[in-house]
Amino acid sequence: MSKRTGSIVNRRVVFKGAAALVATGASFPFAAKAQAPRKRIVLATWGGDYAKLLTKHVSTPVLAPRGWEVANDEAVVAQRKAKTLAEKRLPTGSSDVQALTATDVAEMAASDTLEKLDLSKLKNAKNIIKTFSIADSPLFSPHIYSGQVVLYNPKLIKDVPTGMDSLWDSKNQGKVGIVDIQHVYTTMGAALVGGGKTGDFEVAKKSLLELKKLRPRIYPSNEALAQALQTEEVGLCIMWKARAAQWQDAGANILTVAPKEGLIAYVSGFCIPKNAPNREGAYAFLDAALEPSVQEGFAADMGYNPVVANAKLPADRKARIGFTPDEEKLLVNPDLDFIAKRAAELKDFWDKEFKRA
Amino acid sequence: MTVTTAADDLRSLAAREERGGRLSTAAILIGPATIFVTVSLLIPILILLRYSLNQFAPGTLMVEALTPENYILFFTDPYYTEALYRTLRVAAIVTVCCLVLGIPLAYRLARTQSRFKNVLLILLVLPLFVGNAVRAAGWMTVFGNKGFLNVTLQSVGLTSEPIVFMYTEFAVIVGILAINLPYVVLTLQSVIEGIDRNVEEAAFNLGAGPLRMARRVLLPLALPGLAAGAIFCFILSMNAYATPVLLGGPQFVMMAPLVYVQFAAKSNWPFGSAVSLILMMTTLILTAAANLLVQRRYRN
Which of A137, B54, B155, B265 has its CA 20 to 30 Å from the CA of residue A319? Predict the structure, then answer.
């Protein structure tokens, strides 16, 4: 008898427990997922300040009130590019939006992994400044831009530089810093110093080998270079004006000059992978990133210039991060065709010839 | 006679059943581990092997092929062979340093009667609670131009200008050494603890000094343990990633970071796979050779 009673009690307990679990949905994540509305955007982006500011200026104030939830998938661009390529054959990828630079897009274009954008779905697209050829790319919606300037510490570099050729000046030997991950833009800068265009790889190679003789210090990241500038280990480099503004804001004793050889434009923006699971959300994100408030926020917090004409910046900020009409004439677009075709060769040269001790 | 035969048959049957039972128990016990190793190690290795025979085409991960060109490229390009030699050199130096520094420390820990022995062991293990990348970041604050080491050297008047420690082989060796030393000490300490103290006393009674006792008694007895510790340290050093990247800088290329660059930065999966297999095979061959050598020596 007691055995029978015990059995009934156990079954009841089990049934009650199961009912409670199903009712709450707490123990069955798949059921919970099925019930959730599909308003989630997966944004693959760089981490650090950029990701934080995207949350601060785009995800929270613009997209959340519109019912979108943005999940950041943060990684360096090389990893994200490799992941997108690896997911190419899958019907559904893992990201809706990829944050890339113009040069990354050029590399990715050859892999046929990015969707051709329908700009009519972006109400803010009409405001994009047509300064950059990349703004016309069918794969890319620009977000922010800056230019590659010469950055120097006036305490260490007595003669004010006028161009990138100051890095090649033997007077400055031992004071020059180079960033490893900036190899594409540094190579294009070297091409300009050698008298060529941004895509003249042979000219760039010759210039870089000249620079190598002066034994510049090579740092793995922008942050490592910033630390070296702070400790006065080096005092001269090429860098985005936006970064210079950030470091100046942090108290670094540095000044910038628009190089006479040309201001290579750095444009960062967003793409949609062809197998993005949530295209509607992806377009919503791209459009939100072009809102004037977002553009103004990035100019204030990160030092990058707006890519839309209707963003308004305070005059002092514009002077700090932007370019004068004369400087704007120096703006040069990266040779994207060159990058698309020879990125692997360029990286090989950089690693095996330029960097090799 | 018939009774004896029947009893023998029964005993033999019982023995066979017992053996069968032991075998099935053993299969149950080792089965999950075997399946796990097969799935998580052998299958990826076979996939890597297949990938390594493919061709690379920019814009795509790889093109199906059966070519040895990735292996030929590795062994004919000095950039890659230098990376392999550099990795071998660093791994060998770290292993030797770990043994030289680790043996006295392990011996002291094994033989101490102190009531603080457990505390000492915890202190030894404590650095392993911190990840390799975090530890490397700590070394960066020590090795920088205005880091602890340079500031100390300058403040005591030994140097007037900062010495470049960061992004050098020295920094990488120190960084990996600090990671591997606790593993080696723990391995050696447990081996030395297993050696009877009386054997050492006997050597001393027969007139051997401490060094002679160590050379003639302790080290030969601890040889298998020493080999295990050295092999463990060598494998860890060969595959070091975070420390060479963070302390070696962009110009100091070792094999594990080279694998990462091929996969992530260049999207060249076939060559990345070939480099991975070369690293794995080099480590495996050297480890097996060392093991064989020690076994032969131990038998002698």
Answer: A137
Per residue in B262-289, pLDDT (tens digit) is 988 888 999 999 999 999 999 999 999 9
Radius of gyration of chain B from its Cα atoms, rounded to whole angstroms: 26
CB contact under 8 A, B250 and A218: yes
**Does residue B16 lie in a domain region?**
no
Neighbour tally for B220: CB within 10 Å: 14
pLDDT at residue A48, as a whole number:
87
Residue B249 falls in which region: left (phi positive, over 0), alpha (psi -120 to 50) or beta: left
Cα–Cα distance measured from residue B185 to residue B124, given in angstroms and rounded to the nearest whole number: 8
**DSSP state at residue A97:** E
Domains and CATH numbers, chain A: 36-145+266-327 (3.40.190.10), 146-265+334-354 (3.40.190.10)
Taking the C-alpha atoms of residue B166 and residue B170, their distance in angstroms, rounded to an integer, is: 8
Residue B79 to chain A, least CA–CA distance (Å): 6
Q: What residues in chain A have per-residue pLDDT under 70?
A: 1-38, 132-136
Does the beta-carbon distance from A357 to B251 stay under 8 Å?
yes
pLDDT < 70 stretches in chain B:
1-4, 300
Distance from CA of A194 to the nearest CA of B (A): 24
Query: What pLDDT was estimated at residue A38?
Result: 53
Whole-angstrom Cα Rg for chain A:
25
Contact call for residues A307 and A121 (beta carbons, < 8 A)? no
For residue A228, the chain B residues in CB contact (below 8 A) are: 145
User: Among partner residues A79, A233, A352, which is closest to B264 by beta-carbon distance?
Assistant: A79
Count of CB atoms situated within 10 Å of the CB of A131: 16
The whole-angstrom separation of Cα B238 and Cα B242 is 12
Q: Does a structural domain hold residue B27?
A: no
Q: In angstroms, rounded to a whole number, what is the distance separating the alpha carbons of residues B179 and B129? A: 11
What's residue B4's pLDDT? 62
Hey, what long-range contacts does B14-17 have (CB within 8 A, 24 or more apart)? none
Nearest to B267 among A76, A81, A351 (CB): A81
**Taking CB atoms and an 8 Å limit, are A356 and B250 in contact across chains?**
no
* Residues A351, B79: C-beta atoms closer than 8 Å: yes
Residue B125 lies in a domain: yes
Element counts in chain A: helices (H) and strands (E): 14, 11
Q: What is the pLDDT of residue A330?
A: 93
The distance of B134 to chain A (nearest Cα, Å) reads 16
| Residue B2 neighbours by CB under 8 Å, 6+ apart | none
Domain at B141, CATH number = 1.10.3720.10
- At A21 the pLDDT is 47
Contact list in B for residue A231 (CB cut-off 8 A) is 144-146
CB contact under 8 A, B61 and A86: yes
The count of CB pairs under 8 A between chains A and B is: 54
Can you give the pLDDT at residue A34? Answer: 46
Domain tally, chain B:
1
Does residue B57 lie within any of the structural domains? no
Domain extent for B248? 63-299
Within its chain, how far is the Cα of A262 from the centroid? 21
Task: Quickly list H helices, chain A.
Answer: 2-24, 29-35, 48-54, 77-86, 102-109, 183-193, 201-213, 222-230, 241-249, 279-289, 292-302, 315-321, 325-328, 336-349
